[in-house]
Each structure stands twice: as structure tokens, then as C-alpha cells.
Amino acid sequence: MVMKIRKEIPTPDNSSNFDIVPDSATVAGTTLENLKSAVTGETGASAKYAAFAEAARAQGFEQIARQFEATSAAEQIHIGLEAALIQAEEPDYVRPEAPSMEAFQTDVNLISGALGEIFETSDMYPTFIQKAQEEGNAKAVQVFTRAKLAESVHAELYLDAYNNIDAEDDRAFYLCPICGYIHKGDDFEKCPICFCPKEKFRVF
């Protein structure tokens, strides 16, 4: 359950996991439109995970509550990166308000989270990356790439929590402040996505 450190920071050009799923549900607009769509999606995801964290804690799953809180915060990092690019083109852009979200039993919430993250990493973000490449928007490619890679790890962590829901341990979650990558436990030195050092990570 560890994303390995490569010799170079992963990009669409040096990686083999950026293809778009054959049954893609994402309709690409311009990169600016895609950035706005991503912000809206991430805003909903962040709110959803915050609601799931409250439910997990109320249901007695403290470690999973912290995991949801870390992932909610990770989505806020993605929102900030994407909104900054939008505001560079549209200074008056206002971020959407977080919607009210309903939570259910924690096992179902973990599957919901995993499915959302899998969609983003295999469908939405690869589609947006391809469009940004076509438009020659290197900054958007980087932002979308970092989010895409982080989301795949979020999905893996959710499935791990689902499979081990009745065998929680006391490990903390470490959140990269640059790209939103999350590492479970302290057995790492730097982010495998952006190479941010461990000492700058936020602990949950």
C-alpha cells in the first residue's frame, strides 16, 4: 500500500497510467472550463468526506474518521491549485460553496469514497490532462497530474480501510501540503508525487 519513489517526478510523459477508461463519462470542455468543473467536483468531495468523518467518529471508527479528514483536506489542496489557475484568467472568479452532504454507515461511505476517487484518477483527470496538453497549458497539466495521482492513492487507502474496518490500528495519516498525497504511517521520507519532504507533511 505504498506508492514507490521514482528517480524522477511522475508526469504524463514518463508514466504509463494516464490512459482514459474506454467508457469515459467525462465530457471535456476548454481547460478553463475543466478547471472550474474540477473545483466543483473537489468541493463536493471535500464536503462529503467531512460528513463521512463525523459519521465515522460517531460510529466508533476513530482512525477512519482521521482518514476522511485527511482526504477532505487533500481535496482542499486540489481546489486551491485549480482555483489559482482560474483566477489567473478570471480574477473575479468565486469558488462554489460547499454543498450539504449526507453520510451513511462507514463501510458504505468508504466504498463511496473509493468509487469517486477511482473515477477522478481513471476518467476525469486523464481527460482534463489530455485537453490541457492539446492546448499547451503546462501549468494545468501539472495541477491535474498531481491531483490525478493523489486520487489513486486515496482510493487505495479507502479500500484498505474497508477491508480492514474491524482491525483498525493506531497509525497516523500524513498529508502532503503540495499535491494532496496521503501516506498511512510514518515509514517514508518524501512525497512520491512531488518530492515534498516528510517534515512538511500535515499529520492526522
Describe it.
The protein has about 200 residues and is mainly alpha-helical. Helix content is about 55%, strand content about 5%. It has helices at about 30-60, 60-90, 105-135, 140-165, and strands at about 175, 180-185, 200-204. Strand 1 (about 175) and strand 2 (about 180-185) form a beta hairpin. Helix 1 runs antiparallel to helix 3 and helix 3 runs antiparallel to helix 4. The chain is globular. The model has no long low-confidence stretch (mean pLDDT about 95).
Content of β-strand? under 5%
Q: Going across the biggest sheet, name each strand in turn.
A: 2-1-3
Amount of helix: 40-55%
* Average pLDDT, all residues: 97
Give the distance, in angstroms, between the N- and C-terminal Cα atoms: 18 Å
Shape field = globular
Indicate the structural class: mainly alpha
- Number of DSSP helices? 4
Residue windows where pLDDT falls under 50 for at least 5 positions: none
Please describe the biggest sheet, giving its number of strands, its sense, and whether it closes into a barrel.
3 strands, antiparallel
From the alpha carbons, calculate the radius of gyration and give it in angstroms.
16 Å
User: Helix and strand succession?
Assistant: HHHHEEE
Extended strand count: 3
